[in-house]
Design goal:
Elements lengths: L8 E5 L4 E2 L2 E2 L1 H13 L4 E4 L11 H15 L5 E4 L5 H13 L4 E5 L8 H14 L4 E5 L1 H4 L5 H7 L5 E6 L4 H10 L4 E4 L5 H6 L4 E4 L1 H4 L1 H13 L2 H10 L1 H7 L6 H9 L16 H13 L7
Parallel strand pairs: 1-4, 1-10, 4-5, 5-6, 6-7, 7-8, 8-9, 9-10
Antiparallel strand pairs: 2-3
Helix pairs in contact: 1-2, 3-4, 4-6, 10-11, 12-14, 13-14
Length: 297
């Protein structure tokens, strides 16, 4: 069966700007508008980069609602509604669908983890509760669990489980997914291998880099998908150092710092996340300047 394609190209794993202990909705609106104007193909709200793990449910849902309203149908909005508690993931997912989200990002359960049988049951429970497309999120460095190929094959039989954000960093595994589970659309979850993932049939990226470089990340994907592989390669290599700097500390510490440095009011990080070291900050500033940014101190 042919599945619904949530988006093609560059989806930004968007930051959530804070003002003290509250979401700065005005600045979030400005960032969303700027992203869309720069060519970003989808907004991924309340993911890892959006610090959803420190949001109470009311704030989490308010942020999704605001993103849907602000995007206004110009691009799809994919809402992060994953949890290590299946009932909680189901509740958030149903609410996000009611709020108008175009799709959902579902991370593998963390901390308590589960077996592969449990993973399949968890994702199926969420899928059965909603009708919108679901992108699985495989990020074992954060969750301690990897979705096996047999489990992906089983989940691919569910009509509204349509894709995977593959953030293991293991290109061999990603190739295996492409070869053995062709029913699932693949999005790179790692900015350093966007072009390699596109080269094996990936549909795009769910990107941290796109917060800072939305136009360039969109162009990288668009160029490859149009057949201009040389331009895509050029952009991938040009931004290698900046991508490294954006992941030199725990995400989203560097990218939120970078957004503040280039003129956005991204605000603070929520503990336990903390500010970058002076050495890390120096490296980040240099990487931004090397690709043409002026630093706002």
């Amino acid at each position: 069966m042919e599945k619904t394609l949530p988006f093609t190209g560059s989806g930004v794993a968007i930051i959530t700007p804070f003002d003290g202990d509250k979401t700065n909705f005005d600045e979030l609106g400005r960032i969303i508008d700027d992203q869309i104007a720069a060519g970003t193909d989808a907004i991924i709200i309340c993911g890892t980069t959006g610090e959803a793990s420190t949001m109470p449910d009311s704030e989490h849902l308010d942020v999704i609602k605001y993103a849907v309203k602000t995007a206004g149908g110009r691009v799809p909005v994919i809402a992060g509604t994953g949890s290590n508690d299946t009932a909680h993931a189901v509740m958030l997912s149903k609410k996000a669908e009611e709020l108008g989200a175009d799709g959902l990002l579902q991370v593998t359960p963390y901390y308590n983890k589960t077996s592969q049988r449990g993973l399949a049951a968890h994702f199926k429970a969420v899928a059965e509760a909603v009708s919108i497309p679901i992108i699985l999120y495989n990020v074992p460095s954060r969750t301690g669990i990897n979705i096996s190929i047999p489990t992906l094959k089983e989940l691919a039989e569910v009509e509204n489980i349509v894709g995977i954000k593959e953030a293991s960093g293991n290109l061999s595994y990603t190739v295996q997914v492409a070869a053995e589970v062709p029913e699932l659309y693949i999005y790179s979850g790692n900015d350093d291998i966007i072009v390699p993932v596109l080269s094996i049939g990936g549909k795009g990226v769910i990107s941290v880099l796109a917060n800072v470089c939305p136009k360039e990340t969109h162009e990288m994907c668009d160029a490859y998908l149009r057949g201009d592989t040389e331009r895509a390669r050029e952009l991938q290599l040009k931004y290698t150092d900046l991508i490294g700097a954006l992941f030199s500390d725990v995400n989203p510490i560097p990218v939120k710092t970078a957004m503040n440095l280039i003129g956005y009011n991204a605000g603070n990080l929520r503990m336990p996340l903390c500010n970058m070291s002076e050495e890390g900050l120096k490296t980040l500033k240099a990487a931004l300047q090397n690709v043409g940014f002026e630093i706002k101190d």
